[in-house]
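#dry-run=false #mode=assembly
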Amino acid sequence: MATREEITNRCQALYDDLDFTAARTWKEAKPGRHVIGYLPMYVPREIIHAAGMMPLGILGGGDQLEVIQGDAYYQSYICRIPRSTIELLLTNRLDFVDGMLFPSICDVIRNLSGMWKLLRPDVYAHYFDVPQNYMKDVGGEFYIHELNVLKEDLEKISGNKVTNDALKNSIELYNENRRLTRELYKFRADKPWLAPSSEVYLINRAGMVIPVEDHNILIKDYIEAARQEDRPKRDNSRVVISGSFCEQPPINLIKSIEMSGCYVVDDDYMLVNRWFTKPVPTDGDPIQALSYTFLEASVKMPSCFEPNEDIKGQFLVDLVRENNAEGVIFAAASFCDPALLERPILQDVLNQVDIPHVSFKYAENTGQMQPIREQAGTFADSIKLWS
Amino acid sequence: MNAPQRKPSTDVQKDASMAKQKAMIDGNFDRLGNVKNTGEKVSYTFVPGNLNELIMCFDMVGNYPEINAIQNGLRKKSGGMIMEAEKWGHSEDVCTYVKADIGMMRKGNIGPTGQPIPEPDILMLSYTGCYTFLKWFELLRHDYKCETAMLHVPYTGDGVITKAMTDYVVKQLKEEVIPKYEKVSGVKFDIDRLRENLAHSAKAEDDFVWVLESAKNKPSPIDAYFGGIYYIGPIFTAFRGTDLAVDYYKTLREEIEERIRKGQGPITPEGEMKNEKYRIVTEGPPNYTSMREFWKMFYDEGAVVVASTYTKVGGTYDFGFRHDPSRPLESLAEYCMHCYTNRNLPERTRMLETYINDYEADGLLINSIKSCNSFAAGELMMMREVEKRTGKPAAFVETDLVDPRYFSAANVKNRLESYFQMIDQKRRAGA
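#status=ok
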């Protein structure tokens, strides 16, 4: 079995590879294979998989991509992820992708779907809407329709019929992926000194660019390897990261938070890999199961409406308590409307139960870590000294 | 609905319709300020995709937080409100409409006319073309702890409105919106009353479209951006569906007919614009904190806006949509989905192209708003595309809706002057 270091090195290479070689290799291995890209948040990867295609998570260009053309498409007051995604497109790094899904995260990603249609009219680009009404006969029915539209579109692109059996098989694989991801998170929360956040991040990030079958093995191997290592335990403060669900912080920022004296025991990076809080049933109509599970068991995050004011923000308090965290770091991408508009409500909810918090913004290409280290370090110290 | 009449301001030149419009808007503020005496229930809602005809069925008075922000912007009050919200932890990066509203609330909720804005009995979160709306009313709900009705309006990402989308919105109206309004207001829903209101809307919409399309005349008798802001006031807010709005658009139409007969250009704050030199199509909202200064940069150069997308945020009536009393709920659903920012970028680009051709415009000007990603994200792409398709020059300026910190008069003026020179050059090259 591979060592922890070998596993994380592989994931680091996948993270660094802005040409998506792993996905290209997968596609080229057999004629007729197709790849469908998707932006952060949530898309039903099960349907893509059941069509014999590979879902590819596009999370921007990070801090290693020089954005030249992408900047010409966006004003300075718009976040960085759409401009680096455009850069990936215009530099042909996504030329092998057969379709793109744009989930309903925010107005910027929504409008990016239209830009894709204008820039690449020959490539399938679909704005993927999810219901904000959570009644089964209202939002549920609408969502079933949306899922069926997507299924039919993907059947056309792939030439493969998405059978119920194939879909159930895919749901089982992704149920397992979500279960393993949660196991990984629990492992980190229990023993954060054995699973640094930067490593957990890379393991999860790998799941965006390799087949789910491989990723399931990868997570298992990492947990097993990390469990066997003896690494020093530090007197760090335990924190939850909130607000980083779309544009991702650079890996150095994630490392910096930890180096400043924080153990990250939960976060909202790449929520797609643990979007459902319970398994999707496989004993009925699979499309209906995906729809109803979305309504009943989605994670809470700012792009989704919370119909019940009494529990608004409570998920964050629960995350803190379930993970024995001592505080929350609000780390949002600059100009991220959902995260930054939601933040005052969440801060107020935390204040009411005396959970300390601190806030800062970043961009995916933030290079100067000293201010982050100082802020996170002071926060960690204040928890240790006064909480 | 009878709005009390107020004496119009006399410091700038206005048509009778403009004074009438101002009195109507002020009348709604009077009505809001007086709910303690009248006992009327208050519904907060947004402009794009508003359900005014439906809300009126429950005898409720509408409060429009965007309109409050605009009115506060015009009165130079919004800057302090925005900073107040920022003091309470709201990011400098986000929508200034939201912050102007939150800041106004934190400062005692005194509205732009000096009257108190009452607390909402219900927040109608009609979620059309803008994610910020969703967060905005979650923020208000967090403070007011009041009933909230959510209407998720699907985005037309593929450029079409499907039956499934309409059915979804209609079901929400039936199962979420109407029951909540009945509960809060104590008034039973009467579909015939809704039909009657929708018939009023359709009538006003006919005249409104006629007014917008009058800009195809040369010279244009209207300015469809700065003047257009007056024209959209009643139909985008608390008056659509009322006989007051029908009357307002009839008056406005007669006024414009008269202008056409006389061969007159549009009215500006400094009187009639006499020499139409440039015909411009605009994309994006205006700046409200320095609107008069911004407008002056146009009419001083002889530039008139003949079509604007901003006047379509509350409905794209000029592309054929009308409220339909024979299909009341379906019609409301389709109305919401037709609003400009609920349309995908290819559709928005096609609209701009159509405007430039149909209105024989000299070019496109984009006023990109820092606050509004719904409008702004993708505008540079649209600009390139429209230039490519029409061969007409385009220009790009950046301001904000109601945050005075983001209006740099010298920069905007410089860019506009360069743009008008570019049009001249293009004309010379084509001559």
